Amino acid sequence: MSRFYLSIFSGLTMLFIILATAHGLGPFIHLTPEETNTEMMAFVFSSTLTIFGVSLQRAQLHRTEQDKQTAEKQASYDPLSGLLNRRGFMPTLARLDNQGRRYCVAMLDIDNFKSINDNHGHRVGDRVIQILAQIIHNRCRSQDITARIGGEEFALVLVDIAPDEVEPLLEAIRSTLANMSIVAEQQTLYCTISIGWADSASGHDGETLLHHADLALYQAKSAGKNRIVAFSG
């Protein structure tokens, strides 16, 4: 029962008892009006305190549950990018295996990120991460899973996607960043990313696909960066 309905019910109950007492009925009738009034006032006072205490307890329980949910969310999300962190990403990836859904796992890595931090400062590096996270958010679909799992590493899970739709989606992310002039701290720079991906059609679980996507990412880096490579085992 909600606090609102509890208050209504309790208020009507006390009103009924007060009216009954006023008409000489109920458990609070005594030989003298003074005794009757004293016991009635004591009942009303104790009932009010009880209702107030129950309401406070319910409010505290509700606040505790909200704080717990907030803490769990903060523990699973990266504050800089707003995406899932590794702690939140890995269990989500594992649940897909139990659902039997087809998906692709992609690993994205900002090229030359150390040089960006060294030459332009960490605040600019943070801004690049935020911009890439926003591009990922805008390009991915509602059912996709997006995460920042390392310093400059991002992971995507493209759920229920046709094989011929994977590369165009990843290319949209890559090209959007590559063609964007990033202005931060009164500096302008261009950034690129390398991407590797793997398909669940291979029959492997999510953690293995993440490893395969990482291998494909390494191939993209070795081939000159700023490109997309599909894992071919």
From TrEMBL:
The keyword ATP-binding does not apply. It catalyses: 2 GTP = 3',3'-c-di-GMP + 2 diphosphate. Keywords: Membrane, Transmembrane, Transmembrane helix. It comes from Aeromonas bivalvium. The keyword Glycosyltransferase does not apply. The chain crosses the membrane at residues 40-59. It comes from the Bacteria. CDD domains: GGDEF. Residues 101-233 form the GGDEF domain. Its EC number is 2.7.7.65. It holds the Pfam family GGDEF. It is an enzyme of class 2 (transferase). This is diguanylate cyclase. InterPro entries: Diguanylate_Cyclase, GGDEF_dom, Nucleotide_cyclase, Rev_trsase/Diguanyl_cyclase.
